[in-house]
Design goal:
By secondary structure, the chain is mostly beta strands. It has 2 helices and 6 strands; from the N terminus they run E-E-E-H-E-E-E-H. It is globular.
Length: 86
């Protein structure tokens, strides 16, 4: 059986905190805050839907239950990617 050495993180991405203001995503040893103001899709979702994030490719995250996909760039700089409603 091959196992990772103790102390190695086998999960590259996880939600570390959910608050009334937003959520914190930990990816590749960097913690990113996503406010509900900038990322409104998460605001009224069940906790299990928010926690179920996958990194589908390097720096590209997908929440299947909510049908939201975001890149690291979008999370770091939401002002560059304004919400558009039609």
């Amino acid at each position: 059986m091959n196992s990772l050495a103790h102390g190695k993180d086998i999960s590259a991405v996880e939600i570390t905190h959910i608050s009334s203001h937003g959520i914190w995503l930990l990816a590749h040893e960097e913690e990113l805050f996503m406010s509900y103001e900038d990322f409104p899709w998460f605001k009224n979702q069940p906790v299990n839907a928010i926690l179920a994030v996958e990194e589908v490719s390097q720096g590209h995250f997908y929440w299947q239950q909510i049908d939201v996909d975001l890149t690291m760039e979008m999370i770091k700089h939401p002002e560059r990617f304004p919400l558009v409603a039609n």
